[in-house]
Write a structure and sequence with these properties.
Chain A: It comes from Nocardioides ganghwensis. The complex is a heterodimer of chains A (337) and B (524). Chain A is mainly α and 337 residues long. Helices cover 72% and strands 4% of the residues of chain A. Chain A has a single domain (26-336), classed as ABC transporter involved in vitamin B12 uptake, BtuC, CATH 1.10.3470. Chain B contains 17 helices and 22 strands. Classes of the chains: A mainly alpha (337), B alpha/beta (524).
């Protein structure tokens, strides 16, 4: 409606006309749709269930989904180039396991974190090199990564290892108060990741090259852009994000377990797609992926508030939403062609 | 500020006060056994539009790729401003001031106009892209070229023509000395071409040397000052456009076919065109930006030859007749039934067969055997549920290998190991096996040796005598004239002439194509 502020201008009629006929650019439509969906779900939920309108619910949403937000950020980079990264769920599990195991062995918590981040980044680098220099499809290369990371996790331990390190538990439970409401560090780290990623994508040559590769890789090459470095780079970023998400997840769940995060890569992909990023690459924003995660989160919250619906409804609704968004995108892109 | 140009400011004659920006001397490039370029020399002067002319395979694109550093030259010298250069990569060529805009727009559709113009060299401040400065710089360049679009808009919101202009703007932003435009007009309509030409003139007046490749003769005559004509990888001549008639140009491009082919005893035209009902009748068949409304009739047992230069619309017409592209105007009737051919499948069902000009991409399946390649179309028309009995397969394949003298005469040979001529024969067999009533052949003899050429021609004549209707398309006028009963001449995406083929000479056709039956030297 008239939420758009218009600078005062002498010709009122045309100002009004501009407000009335304002249409956001096409490229923002998917993200606006996702935001509307989120607000709609939040509004409907607020009317049906008392307590859902409490801002703390929103805060909890961020806290509970911090790891998925970070995964979504990494996945957005990859999908923007037209690729896919199936390994991230396994890398999350591997990260929790490395953290738990190294802490159990008595490493300092910081060394443990560094080991986790280094492992994830290295895995991402390996897959990126395979994909670019051996021209292996991202689907296959990262599928191999999925099995490899999960396998290593089992290799480290088939048993669940709990995390009791004081630094970890301190980080996990320390809260930051904003007025009457609280948020945890994990959520703040996730939001910071989103902010940094948004800046990199919008304002650096690396970021613009990511979009250019997704738009037309051959053209990007002919334009003299650094295609190789960028393509490998997005998998490195995704690997790093997966490891960071793994750390956040181990803070959330305080254990390392080879059964953690099975299928989480699919949640991440779903969030990115619902957030309006085109699977063929070139179009999308990390902010959309954040909204995508929140949509998935609010559905989960609504179902738990309701109490009568079983949790498998989360899966069904996610599936329906995913399908709906892909179809909407198909129409949006076809019109433009 | 720039006054309208009335006459091309007389381009400096060779060797006069102006030095060429680029001189390519005795350039040769060999691929395997094929000499793609054989001692070709080209000079580019500042402030001229230089047209590179020649039919398919003449060596235009090889020459361009030598200049842009995509191919490395085997021998010859490239000098820029008197200095000798050797390009081993596109980047090296770009650094020397040579920018190229290719036929298909090589930009990124999902980013803005400004981003596309400046990708990879965006103005930055403290490491982050200065969007405002980027838009300002893009707007300045666009305005300078007289292109009135908002640089903040996303590229694919604009029509192809504008995208093409943006590609040029990107090339210009690097201060190119030489701008190569490789068929930039092939998908533009008349207004859009005019816009492009305005930009080209402006750049030329600023002293940029522009290399222009186009198959549209009218465009060459409108915009180009000088031209270099190539044929079969060799330099034919360098000419001033103003001193060359279109007739001369066409003759220089096509050349005389001196090869002696077995004269075919051409049977007198079997049908009097116009009698009876045509087997195939197209009325006003056309497609936007591809082919203007065209009428065509084809009678039983008749060979209609389609002559015209590359880009004249000859292939486009064939594709519409076969349903490979969908017509957006006009009607097509097969045996007086109106038909909409929405896909090749429909056409095959109506007993129409089409052998594409692009043998490699649209015909040959290299990793299958000769027999498999031959039976593809028949199997497709039967549907996958009704396999062809083994005995029939063997017989059909054996018959056609013999009938067309395919070598090696081995049904199990891999298709990719056959020579071009033999591959073409297999493709011909593929369609003959389906027993079509109408056979459309697009350049069936291109790039194959003389023996195979003669055999294919003989087979076509024989089939027509048996009642098959053929649409025969070829760049070689002699061949079209030798085979066809009726002749259709195309130019600039439309039919410009049609007549019964009685004693039409190559010269007559050349004159029709050149569009001016002017008195010239009689030397043919």
């Amino acid at each position: 409606m008239s939420a758009i502020t218009v600078p005062p201008s002498s010709d009122r009629a045309s100002t009004w006309d501009r407000v009335r006929t304002y249409r956001p650019p096409n490229r923002y439509l998917p993200i606006i749709a996702t935001a509307a969906l989120f607000l709609g779900l939040f509004g409907v939920g607020g009317m049906r269930y008392d307590g859902l309108t409490d801002p703390q619910v929103l805060m909890s949403l961020l806290i509970d989904n911090a790891f998925l937000i970070v995964l979504g950020v990494g996945m957005t980079f990859v999908i923007l180039t037209g690729g896919i990264d199936l390994s991230v769920g396994s890398v999350v599990a591997l990260s929790t396991m490395i953290a738990a195991k190294t802490l159990e062995l008595g490493w300092s918590p910081y060394a443990s974190m560094a080991a986790v981040l280094a492992t994830g980044t290295l895995l991402g680098l390996l897959m990126g090199l395979l994909i670019h220099y051996f021209d292996i499809q991202p689907f296959i290369a990262t599928l191999a990564g999925l099995f490899l990371a999960r396998g290593i996790t089992y290799l480290i331990s088939v048993e669940s290892i709990s995390i009791k390190d004081p630094t970890f538990t301190e980080l996990a439970f320390r809260t930051v108060y904003i007025g009457d409401y609280y948020i945890r560090w994990t959520a703040i780290i996730a939001l910071a990741t989103v902010a940094v990623a948004a800046y990199v994508l919008a304002r650096t040559r690396f970021g613009r090259t990511v979009y250019a590769i997704g738009g037309n890789e051959a053209s990007a090459m002919l334009m003299g852009l650094r295609v190789a470095a960028t393509k490998v780079g997005v998998y490195v970023i995704s690997g790093f994000c997966a490891a960071l998400a793994g750390l956040l997840f181990s803070l959330y769940i305080l254990s390392g377990n080879s059964l953690h995060a099975i299928g989480m890569e699919l949640d991440a992909i779903a969030a990115v797609v619902i957030g309006g990023t085109l699977l063929t690459g070139g179009r999308g924003y990390v902010l959309g992926s954040l909204l995508g995660v929140l949509v998935l989160g609010i559905i989960k919250t609504l179902i738990s508030f309701d109490g009568t619906l079983s949790s498998y409804w989360i899966r069904i609704i996610t599936g329906v939403l995913l399908l709906a968004f892909v179809i909407v995108q198909r129409f949006a892109t076809r019109r433009r062609a | 500020m720039t006054q309208m140009r009335t006459q091309p400011e007389t381009v400096s004659p060779p060797g006069a006060e102006t030095q060429p920006v680029i001189e390519m001397r005795d350039i040769s490039i060999t691929f395997g056994a094929v000499r793609a370029l054989d001692g070709v020399s080209v000079r580019l002067f500042p402030g001229e539009v230089h047209a590179l002319m020649g039919e398919n395979g003449a060596g235009k694109s090889t020459l361009i790729k030598a200049l842009t550093g995509v191919y490395t030259i085997d021998s010859g010298v490239i000098t820029i401003g008197g200095e000798q250069h050797e390009f081993h990569s596109p980047a090296a060529s770009q650094a020397a001031g040579i920018s190229t805009v290719y036929q298909e727009v090589n930009l990124v559709p999902n980013l803005t106009v400004a981003e596309n113009m400046l990708l990879g060299r965006e103005p930055r401040r403290f490491g982050s892209i200065n969007v405002r400065e980027m838009n300002r710089r893009a707007r300045r360049t666009l305005l300078h070229l007289g292109i009135d679009i908002d640089p903040r808009t996303v590229l694919d919101e604009h029509p192809i023509a504008v995208q093409q202009l943006v590609a040029i703007a990107r090339a210009v932003d690097v201060e190119a000395k030489v701008l190569i435009l490789d068929e930039p007009t092939s998908s533009l309509d008349a207004d859009e071409v005019e816009k492009l030409f305005t930009v080209m003139r402006r750049l030329r007046d600023e002293g940029v040397a522009i290399v222009f490749v186009s198959h549209f003769l009218d465009q060459i005559y409108e915009i180009a000052d000088r031209m270099t004509i190539l044929r079969n990888g060799r330099l034919v001549e360098e000419r001033m456009v103003a001193d060359t008639t279109q007739l001369e140009l066409v003759r220089l491009m096509i050349g005389r076919e001196l090869e002696v082919l077995d004269r075919l005893d051409r049977a007198a035209p079997q049908t009097d065109a116009g009698s009876g009902t045509p087997l195939l009748k197209a009325v006003g068949l056309g497609r936007k930006n591809t082919l203007e409304a065209t009428d065509l009739e084809l009678f039983e047992g008749e060979v209609v030859g389609i002559a015209g230069l590359l880009g004249s619309g000859r292939t486009e017409l064939a594709r519409l007749l076969f349903g490979a592209d969908t017509a957006d105007s006009g009607e097509l009737a097969v045996r007086s039934h109106r038909r909409r051919l929405r896909s090749p499948r429909h056409a095959i069902d109506r007993n129409i067969a089409f052998s594409s000009e692009d043998r490699k991409a649209e015909g040959v399946v290299g990793d299958l055997t000769v027999a498999d390649n031959m039976l593809l179309a028949l199997q497709a028309s039967r549907g996958w549920l009704r396999p062809i009995p083994q005995a029939t397969r063997t017989r059909l394949v054996k018959d056609y290998i013999e009938a067309l003298d395919i070598r090696p005469a081995d049904p199990n040979a891999l298709m990719r190991n056959l020579s071009g001529g033999n591959q073409q024969k297999v493709l011909l067999a593929r369609w003959l096996i389906t027993e079509p009533e109408i056979l459309i052949l697009d350049e069936p003899t291109r790039g194959i040796d003389i023996g195979a050429k003669a055999q294919i021609q003989a087979k076509v004549a024989e089939l027509a005598a048996q009642g098959l209707s053929v649409v025969f398309i070829s760049a070689e006028l002699e061949e079209v004239l030798r085979l066809s009963d009726r002749l259709v001449v195309m130019r600039d995406r439309r039919k410009i002439h049609e007549q019964t083929n009685d004693d039409v000479s190559v010269r007559d056709v050349l004159e029709i194509i050149a569009g001016e039956a002017r008195e010239g030297e009689t030397r043919a």
